[in-house]
Amino acid sequence: MSFDIECERFFDGESFHGRTRVTVEGERITAVAGSAEGATASGTADAEQLRCKFLMPGLIDSHLHIAGYVEGSPAGVPFQPMKNFMRLLVLNGITTVRDTGNSIETILYMREWGERFIGPRVFSSGPLLDVPPMVWPFSRIVRDPESARRQVEMLHLEGMDFIKSYRNVPAEVLVAIVETARSFGMDVAADVRALPAIDAARCGVRSLEHAMNLLDESLFPEIPSIAEAKDGDFSGADGRARFWSHVDLEAPIVDELIAVLKEHGTFVCPTLLVTHRWCSLDDMVQEPYLDYMVGVMPYHSYFKRMQGTFG
Fold it and tell me: Could you tell me the pTM of the whole model?
């Protein structure tokens, strides 16, 4: 199947253009022509002609959980919040998502649903690998290297795209996760706390999730009276944000972290928006799209009830 899309404005991922024709053949874009190259003419003789005001590449959300929190389910429709989530993503131009922790059942169902109803492509780690006490119910226990290798192999067989190591995993277990994942051609993402991010990078982790966990308190003994400070509780997202206010970004350990990330090819997925929202309750309450968000994650109804309290 071939078709031409003629748009009045076009964004190619780097810059904006005026009237443009994009020719699609099968599943590939085969030509992009601006008005100077004759954008009003058909790219192929039998191509279907489509028109639009604005065209751009599909966006990628590189860290999400498809309906990461579900407060009860409508009777007989357990995946309805997830379907709402998928529709909302596409309506906002997101055509590919990287789900960094979810149940196998949710991921497989959403992949199939997305293919049937033109939802975003879903790449996922499936369940998190963690050590008790667990944080999320979609987690699998990896107490030692042997169980870690077994769980990675199982996730590979279950069709997951990469592996997600979570906050309580120690170094020796993380090494086993990385080595086993590599043997199956899979990368490892990590959300760290028990293990400093710099050590996780040295273990071979491909991506570090959440910039707030990049630096560990133990690496900054020079911060004065850290335990006695007025804002010295650095647990939770807001506490981690306060910790960063104490950090000297010119410190040698920061340069060392950057060097290790470059050496091992480790990238950072910062998730700055969600961190900001965790740290600012008034912004959450005044969010203009709460009505849409309630259908995806029902706990947003609590924020709706609080409207009028802030501001």
Answer: 0.85
Cβ pair 95, 87 in contact under 8 A: no
C-alpha 260/C-alpha 283 separation (Å) is 35
Torsion 77-63-166-129 (CA) sign:
positive
In terms of DSSP bridges, do strands 128-130 and 121-124 run parallel, antiparallel, or are they unpaired? unpaired
The amino acid sitting at 304 is K
- Measure the CA angle with vertex 166, ends 248 and 222; round to 5°: 20
Q: Distance between CA atoms of 101 and 119, rounded to whole angstroms?
A: 19
Q: Where are the alpha helices (DSSP H) in 30-160?
A: 80-91, 104-117, 145-157
59-64 and 48-55 strand pairing: unpaired
**Rounded Cα distance, 142 and 151, in Å:** 7
Residues 45-67 pLDDT 10s:
566 889 999 999 999 999 999 98
Q: Give 177-234 pLDDT, tens digit per residue.
A: 999 999 999 999 999 988 999 999 999 999 999 988 888 877 776 655 444 555 556 6
Q: Which residues pair with 32 in a beta bridge?
A: 22
Report whether 74 contacts 80 (CB < 8 A).
yes
Cα–Cα distance measured from residue 103 to residue 128, given in angstroms and rounded to the nearest whole number = 9
Query: Which residue reads 């912004």 in tokens?
Result: 283
- Roughly what angle, to the nearest 10 degrees, separates helices 236-244 and 272-279? 110
Contact 100, 64 (CB under 8 A): yes
